[in-house]
Amino acid sequence: MSSLAIEAEHLVKKFGDQTAVDDVSFSVPEGSVLGLLGPNGAGKTTTVRMMTTLAKPTSGTARVAGHDVLREPDAVRRAMGLTGQAATVDELLTGRENLRLIGSLYGLSASYVKAAGADLLERFSLAEAGDRTVKTYSGGMRRRLDLAVSLIATPPVLFLDEPTTGLDPRSRVELWEVLRGLVKDGTTLLLTTQYLEEADQLADRIVVIDRGQIIAEGTPLELKDRSGKASLVLTVSRAEDLQTAADMLRQRVSEVHVDEAARQLTAPAEGLRDMTRIAAVFEDSEIELDDLGLKRPSLDDVFLHLTGHRAEDVATETEEQAS
After folding, report:
1. What range does the record give for the signal peptide (predicted)?
2. What is the CATH number assigned to the segment(s) 229-295?
3. 22-34: pLDDT as tens digits
4. How would DSSP label each residue in 163-218?
5. Domain ranges of the chain
């Protein structure tokens, strides 16, 4: 069994009478990914700030690479990297100069920083832009450089606070690929995100946090299953076949929802076995299908099931309180 790279024990953070984080505990084995999932204002960033020595817990503690955040803050900082919600690179410097600057702050030798910087620029597809000022970079390029800077000292543990917020879909997928490569090389990741899709793509396990408390944890599939089973979604090619297809489907499942406008049928399903079974039925019929697939619950479905409210409601409430 892998040793633990990150441990949180009964973390509490209060700001006056407000409790931002309330008795949060979890652990992350070496070389794995934990997704801290929740809406805006849930307490994710505050938790990360306590674990990275940027904020002192009101009570409880945490360990990073075996070092206590309260008793050994310097050792914790040497063992980890942090990428916040906004890119923190200097836009007046080039990408290479940003890496050189952070390397010097770590006290690394110039020769090491030069070699490691070149390797990181290549690894993050920034080699051609390495001598351009960062103000000329796209949002995705800045995020990749921000991540590269956090890795110049090769930390074994990396904290990523909503790393893909504001990125376009292509840049998000590119960054996911980079993160998968880091994990393959042995880096332990803790990432906060509002997106179930992101946690699903990257995390081995997920901790769901809402209003400062952990409300659920498990694998991505376990969490989605808790908010309801998958749905089988079938789209017929011809509208005139919709009712016949619905009748055929009702012979095999308990409930069928018909959407005439979309020529679509939806029914509860246990998994891929149901999909292949239904596909075989329609393959032997004269009804043509445009699509047949499984639909898993969304982040909003998970939050609605676990808390009784939608994730977007908490985000709106938080924004109103801040205004």
Report:
1. none
2. 3.30.70.920
3. 999 999 999 999 9
4. TTTT--HHHHHHHHHHHHHHHHTT-EEEEEES-HHHHHHH-SEEEEEETTEEEEEE
5. 4-225, 229-295
